Amino acid sequence: MADVLSASEDLNAQVDVAAIRARFSSLREGFAFFDAPGGTQVPDEVGEAIARALREASANLGAGYATSLRVGNILEEAEHKAARFLGCEPHEVIFGPNMTSLNFALSRTAARAFRPGDEILVSCLDHDAGVAPWLEIAHDRDLVVRHVGLHDDTTLDFADLESKLGPRTRVVAFAWASNAVGTVTDARRVCQLAHDAGALAWVDAVHYAAHEPIDVRAIGADMLICSPYKFCGPHLGIAAGRAEVMSQWRPYKARPAPASPLGRGFETGTQSYELLAGFNATIDYLGSIGGFAAITPYERALGQRFLDGLSDAVTIYGRPGMDGRVPTFLVNVDGVAAEDVAARLAGARIGVWAHDSWYSLGLYQRLGYTGKSVRIGFIHYNTPDEVGRLAEALNGLRLSRDPPGWTRCATRSPRRGSRPACRG
What we know:
Layout: H1 2-15, H2 17-21, E1 32-33, H3 44-56, H4 66-86, E2 93-96, H5 99-110, E3 119-123, H6 132-141, E4 144-148, H7 158-164, E5 169-175, H8 187-196, E6 200-204, H9 216-219, E7 223-226, E8 237-241, H10 243-246, H11 273-288, H12 291-309, E9 314-317, E10 328-333, H13 338-347, E11 350-351, E12 353-355, H14 361-367, E13 373-377, H15 384-399
Parallel strand pairs: 1-11, 3-4, 3-5, 5-6, 6-7
Antiparallel strand pairs: 2-8, 7-8, 9-10, 10-13, 12-13
């Protein structure tokens, strides 16, 4: 533990976490937020950029006066910054109100040319925002949705994926990282298999984008969607679509609306320009703290510190360590209901959630717990001291709630996946 703490402190110095936290009004009261998978805290400069846009750029595109020109500058800047963030071209960027709305709209656009009996593959690891749009269009158009299975450690079963790819496969949709258990999927491998079968590779990067750098070209994605509220930005949806693919689609939109640049042709209605200004400030903020070159190793050190600090009373679901995951954890404490865990931690000024499926319905069926679990997620503004405080609090919950006759299993690989409870 001392070595992990020392490494965390070194990384703390590299990212200057104290200076980072000073930029967040919400972090000044001592409450420890470990709810990043549900949405992060936002630095003050992002809120200030949103307010400034409302004051100084309350207009729409196309007019020749100052406020309209400012809106145009905000949108163009957002397209360029999103392109750099995602590894695509500015004309391949699409903005929307959130990932789910974008996915419903874009899945229907892609499926215009599909025929009854065509197939879409989705992953059992996925958030339902990556599954429900395909189920609904399948219902409307008599398509077939097939689920790709998982191994016991929650990683994608590539043999199952390959066995389900076929001549009628039109889309392979998958989550790059699980919002529930943090498991990361080999996106490049999935995209290549999809293309080999003549299908589109469709990536839900909402959770991955908060923790790791993205390059849509490198993985070969045809469509990738994420949301800035997961990485200290406003509530928006951002998509990167491959131009060669999108240029063949006919978008759903009002007829007089602009169809150029290409990505704007898939945006409906007036954009939230004030939120795009906030997004621009978010990208500037991430760059100012060193980007993912600094963020990723720091967050991984926090995750390892957490795992090393837990007692055997805390069950971690999914991947056994930090390999193949982002710093998001699903846990239960022996003998303590998840709702009680969350409530008692909140009383100790620690923020986590309790839920049943975490909107990952296929995964929920595989994890083996009944009722609810507790989700914990770290982000770069969390500190090693906060993580140590969380682990200590979780360990203490079990000790204060052991029912008579309860005996812990003597043999168990620490933190290595779910296990059945043992009673004496």
